[in-house]
Amino acid sequence: MDIVLIAGMWLDATAWKDVLPALAELGHRPVALTLPGQGDGDTTATYADQVAAVTAAVDAAAGPALVVGHSAACALAWVAADARPTKVARVALIGGMPNADGETYFGAFEPVDGVVPFPGWGTFEGPDSDDMPTELKAAVAHGAIAVPAAITHGVVQLSDERRYDVPVTMVCPEFTPDQAKEWVKTGEIPELAKARRVDYVDIDSGHWPMYTKPVELARILADCTRT
């Protein structure tokens, strides 16, 4: 199956470099995206440009694809299910949740000079990054891409309720499946509360398992293609 991989904030396609060969060995066709404004050098890119890039990747798939979002990009994966409900076989959400219609794409940090730079590892102390060696943190921070505010301030638009028929797998890294289920139950993730099938998978990692547990993550994603 074609697997579209969308990394979260400050990352480009290279974030998946250790996941790609593991997925290929398992018989899949992974496609890691470098989003507009997030690694391609386009400082004028908008949120709409990123949405267009994701839907184009889904359209280019040979058949219904698994669309994988990481962190903030879980919103983009869910938007793909809304835009192409018959072309998305399943959505896998790694360490994040889909935004609701009308919400700001990524409002966690205020822009500085028109971009949102990586805020440093102090922001992610604890379970998010405890599994990352110092050298890995340094390498990721060095390659981090400041994201244009026109992307982070974009407004999520959802319109096709057929997205709720698309199966979802929540891959739970720094939080547990039980925590995620509780968030859905209490209405903290309204989009998933309406989804007709949501599965939960634990992975013993921090927020960036593509770096620290790439082979295990690949196996989890491969399992997502079977149901």
From TrEMBL:
One of its GO terms (molecular function) is hydrolase activity. Keywords: Hydrolase. Coiled coil: none annotated. It holds the Pfam family Abhydrolase_6. InterPro entries: AB_hydrolase_1, AB_hydrolase_fold. Residues 3-219 form the AB hydrolase-1 domain. The keyword Hydrolase applies. This is Alpha/beta hydrolase.
